[in-house]
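Lab notebook: predicted structure, single chain.

Context: the supervisor wants predicted structures on file for every construct in the current expression panel, including those that have not yet been purified. This is the next one on the list. No modifications to the sequence; it matches the entry in the shared construct table.
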Amino acid sequence: MGTNATNTQQVTFIDAEIPHAGKLQKVATGIYWLRMPLPFDLDHINLYLLEDNQNGQEGYALIDTGFGSEKTQLLWEQLLEVLAKPITKVIVTHLHPDHIGMAGYLVDKFRAPLYMSQTEYFTARALSAGACGASDWQDEQYLVRCGLSEEYVQTARNKRKQNSGMGQAIRPIPLQFYRLQEGDKIRIGGRDWQVYIGRGHSPEHVCLFNNESNILISGDHILPGITPNIGVYSTEPDANSLQLYLDTLPQFTGLPENTLVLPAHRQPFYGLHVRINELIGHHHEHLDNLRDFCKSGKTIEQCLPVLFKRKLSPQNMFFAVAEAYSHLNYLYFAGECSRKINAQGHFVFTLE
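Prediction complete. Output recorded below exactly as produced.
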């Protein structure tokens, strides 16, 4: 079992076996780590169970819930038989399907309260409802503005017609929630956890910190080894997501250096301050590369090889385009480059 790290000049993972899907691994007093599978290249999500007492009843507060699939539900059913204690609280860090996917199932099963930030809750409700008859021309305009081919746009159009988007990846979202706000404290198992809000990866991402144990539950906001997707999507094409992300990372350097970080992907780790500086440096390196590349005007699609050296699958292309868009919007709103529309309808970014 991991103990407080003495070397905080690097990121070090805890000395604990990675749990198999649906199995528990103790990571600290009263805190258990489990994994659920994902149908993506990133094939897992970490969830955390915290010993709790709700209205005199012992149970577990759950942080994030897994992707809304039959496979995940079966794993939950098997795990709940072993736990033999109820879920007392369902806490969702943010709206993405791997985090909120099974929240409705678990809230209904245990009549447990759902805790989220307000923006994440209502955005999830809106996205899961789908277009509700609204035209999708703006989605297509977004892809054209990114400089993607007509073939790609046509493929995306056909794919939208074949599925219902986010709604098919989550269980129905409960009609009631309890709001978590910056600076709030939520009591779990006799400990107070302070709410920190991160932005950029999602609108109002909740992180939780307990100062007695020096443990940070970071969700997707701070990850080891990989970077959270910071994207600009068709719902808000003028978002400055990267600025929001870089604005909300430094606050965590105010936490102790020996903080144990429990992330939503990869493994729990020490080295919080180092990792924050790595993440900030990663994005500034990308920005520097784009400044050089965009001395002559470039589309978003043309910038992809500057940011991503690997071959992109169709699924990864969607997120890569959004990530490139966020970096170019950052430079545009900082006044460092112009953004004009060419004859093909593509945005062209040119360093000023």
